[in-house]
Write a structure and sequence with these properties.
The chain is globular, with a radius of gyration of 24 Å. It is built from 15 helices and 24 strands. The N and C termini lie far apart (about 50 Å). The protein has three domains: about 80 residues, Udp-n-acetylmuramoylalanyl-d-glutamate--2,6- Diaminopimelate Ligase, Chain: A, domain 1 (3-Layer(aba) Sandwich); about 210 residues, 3-Layer(aba) Sandwich (UDP-N-acetylmuramoyl-L-alanine:D-glutamate ligase), CATH 3.40.1190.10; about 160 residues, Protein-Tyrosine Phosphatase, Chain A (Alpha-Beta Complex), CATH 3.90.190. The protein has about 475 residues and is α/β, with parallel strands linked by helices. The strands form five sheets. The chain has a nine-stranded mixed β-sheet. The chain has a six-stranded mixed β-sheet with strand order 17-18-22-19-20-21, with helices on both faces.
Length: about 475
């Protein structure tokens, strides 16, 4: 049984000072929140000053909720029915409490990072394992220095597996996250160009991503992509399991892939022998992620029969490589949740694997890359699929990429669209039953609006320029008209 937090233990861990003590110091508390608009089932609220708001100003909104404890950094008015603990830094207090729970966790901890595929891997792994374990995992992309520790605070006494997706947008973040929750199994999916503008260089990106191995439990297992020589230099003398495509040296490797209609047959070679499965997801990335997932599952003691039974029903997530029917019988690949050069190429390879005459890529702005896109552009140019028939780009990254692509691939139809409406108008005449269109873009570009347009769902957005990172269909300024 996992030990949980109570008022007295929280006071001890954080060295806090009671502004309003609880009536009973032994009452257990579970779950954390930092936004009064999204409290959910949380019983602990952390107030801190962010870039755009100060949580201390909204504490009165906690009254009448499930919150039993407010952790603050300054003196605040009393709250009806809510204890108040003052600490030097509330974010540090969150990290301390999450670390205490993780260090005392009696089950296994699996940490996942990478430049792309983290959330899909976590979602698929959770799907495979949820019947075998009482597991806890991050909701959505709740994967940073706030989301990960908040997730850990929802641990209950009977959880015996924790799957933590860990993101990184700079040096030191994964070192922090792995120190808060040291892993039994640490999985690095890939190292690419995501957030290159923040990391500064690809070398710094490798350094940042491999920080997930800095803090681990006992005889921890490390799982990394095989064949990456630059990664190997960062993991010298590191015992690892490797995964990937067609190399006899990899522990878990993809041996064969056969695509038919809207499914793939994938054959893997593993330490447990040759294994084959049919899945309803397309794209080279599917086999790559599944080979990594097999490594995690087998190291958790699952049999192939247990894994296979769940692989055939992997969930499809909106905005993450999901197919829809478009106008005039066309096929749309909605991969709009986020984007970087590697995931852009994965999307283009996926549409080019479909049975279609026209394979059209649509890519919105690629945010958080280096200013001139020099490294990222070369990766994109070197990996554009041969079957791609047209590529439409927008945003600042599109302005840079268009002339580079036109120079190297003059035969490829390449156009720039200055707005979502213009993009939709360009695409509509091309839509027919032999056309597949893949749509992608960084979260801030909200390329799901192109999906709505190509499904003939009219939409309204009252913002000229979007600064919101939530999905369009949950924004109070956005409306879809059926």
């Amino acid at each position: 049984m996992n030990d949980l937090l109570c008022f007295s233990l929280i006071e001890k861990i954080t060295s806090g000072e009671w502004l309003a003590p609880p009536p009973d110091f032994d009452v257990q508390l579970s779950g954390g929140a930092f936004d009064t608009r999204s409290l959910g089932q949380a019983e602990i609220f952390f107030a801190w000053k962010g870039d755009n708001s100060d949580g201390h100003q909204y504490l009165q909104q906690l009254e009448g909720s499930r919150i039993k404890l407010a952790i603050v950094e300054q003196a605040v008015p009393p709250l009806n029915g809510i204890a108040i603990l003052k600490v030097p830094q509330t974010l540090e207090a969150l990290h301390q409490l999450a670390n205490h729970l993780a260090l005392g966790f009696e089950g296994k901890i699996v940490n996942i990072t990478g430049s792309s595929g983290k959330t899909t891997t976590k979602t698929w792994l959770t799907h495979i394992l949820e019947d075998r374990f009482n597991l806890l995992s991050n909701p959505g992309s709740f994967n940073n220095h706030i989301g990960c520790p908040i997730t850990i605070l929802f641990m209950n006494a009977t959880h015996n597996l924790m799957i933590l997706e860990m993101g990184s947008s700079g040096l030191g973040e994964l070192d922090l996250l792995s120190s808060i929750a040291p892993a039994d199994i640490a999985l690095l999916l890939n190292v690419g160009h995501a957030h290159l503008g923040k990391f500064g260089s690809i070398e710094n990106t490798y350094q940042a991503k491999t920080e997930i191995f800095n803090h681990r439990r006992g005889e921890a297992v490390s799982i990394v992509p095989g064949g990456d020589q630059k990664l190997a230099t960062h993991l010298q003398n590191e015992p690892t399991h490797t995964f990937g495509r067609r190399s006899d040296e990899f522990s878990y490797r993809i041996q064969f892939v056969d695509t038919q209609n809207m499914s793939q047959t994938i054959v893997f070679q593993t330490p447990l022998g040759e294994k084959s499965v049919v899945v309803g997801q397309l794209g080279n990335y599917v086999g790559e992620l599944l080979s990594a997932i097999l490594a995690v599952c087998f190291n958790l003691g699952l049999t192939w029969e247990e894994v296979e039974a769940r692989l055939v029903s992997l969930p499809q997530e909106k905005g993450r490589s999901t197919f829809f029917k478009g106008i005039n019988g066309s096929l749309l690949l909605d991969d709009t949740y986020n984007a970087n050069p590697e995931s852009m190429i994965n999307m283009l390879e996926t549409i080019c694997s479909a049975d279609a005459e026209q394979c059209i890529g649509v890519v919105g702005n690629l945010a958080e890359l280096e200013e001139d896109l020099s490294e990222s552009a070369e990766f994109i140019l070197s990996n554009l699929p041969d079957r791609l028939t047209a590529l439409f780009l927008s945003g600042e990254s599109g302005k840079i990429l268009i002339p580079l692509i036109q120079k190297r691939f003059p035969e490829l139809q390449t156009e720039f669209a200055s707005s979502v409406t213009e993009m939709i108008d360009i695409l509509k005449p091309l839509m027919n039953s032999r056309t597949v269109v893949g749509i992608k873009g960084s979260r801030s570009s909200h390329m799901e609006r192109v999906i709505f347009g190509l499904m003939e769902k009219r939409f309204t957005c009252f913002l000229d320029r979007c600064s919101r990172l939530n999905r369009c269909n949950v924004c109070d300024l956005f409306e879809v008209h059926q």
